[in-house]
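Dig into this one:

. . .
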Amino acid sequence: MTKVELAEKVYEKLSCTKDEAFDLVQLTLEVLKECIVTEGKVKIGGFGNFAVREKAARTGRNPITGEPITITPRKVLTFKPSPVLKNRINKG
């Protein structure tokens, strides 16, 4: 699903214009991104948790040559769905 398709779903549920629905989706995603960057985690009840995790530097291998390489440390974004969302997905 794209951002435009999501805005279309919001438009169908609310009595607003398509532009207002798109702006609402856009604003929600911007606030979500800002909170993830500044806070490092966001918890949405009934949906799940977004968290920024640190990955340490480690040694890997070039899959073509087999040469060892150093993988630099970095931050990764993880998502853990809530039990409510997991149950809804598994029930079809």
